[in-house]
Amino acid sequence: MGKAQKYVLLGDVTYPLQDWILKPYQEDETLTQQQLQFNYRLKRAHSVIENAFLRLKARWQILLKCDDCSLELLPTLVLACCILHNICEAHDNPFNEEWLEGTELTELPKPCQPAPAAMEDGQAEQVRELMCQYFESCGEG
């Protein structure tokens, strides 16, 4: 699109729009087809991420009870699990679907109210608009 962009995190509507947090447009009857497509693609990407974290937690169930280790060790533990998980995935190490049992019950609560508008970054709308245009230029998918 002619403008370099930095990395962004994907959030849902409860997160404030920031130039580093990409969130969907608020669903209402005024959304354009382009914005609806953007929301759809963002939702698909978000589900891929959720599935990856679900598989990570299922394979390395120590992540479900991180209260067993010190706070100083926690970042190293999470990083080690991510690295080992990626190695297993890259080498097609079999994933046992039974590992998924019990992982959904440990979901952390998420905010149910959108972030106040005052927390939103005015420049972030330009980032979202660029991404929206980019998604449209990529065609169907």
Account of the protein in words:
InterPro entries: HARBI1-like, HARBI1_dom. Keywords: Hydrolase, Metal-binding, Nuclease, Nucleus. Its cofactor is a divalent metal cation. Residues 5-86 form the DDE Tnp4 domain. Belongs to the HARBI1 family. The chain is built from three helices and two strands. The protein is globular and about 45 Å long. The chain is mostly helical. The mean pLDDT is 84. Strands 1-2 form a two-stranded parallel ribbon. α1 (33-59) packs across α3. The chain has one domain (9-21, 32-138). The longest helix has 27 residues, at 33-59.
Write a short abstract of this structure:
The protein has 141 residues and is an all-alpha fold. Helices cover 41% and strands 3% of the residues. Its cofactor is a divalent metal cation.
Along the chain, the helix and strand elements come as: EEHHH
Structural class: mainly alpha
Assembly status: single chain
Q: Taking all residues together, what is the mean pLDDT?
A: 84
Shape: globular
Question: How many helix segments?
Answer: 3
Work out the helicity level.
40-55%
Keywords: Hydrolase, Metal-binding, Nuclease, Nucleus
Subcellular location: Nucleus
Organism: Eubucco bourcierii
Cofactor: a divalent metal cation
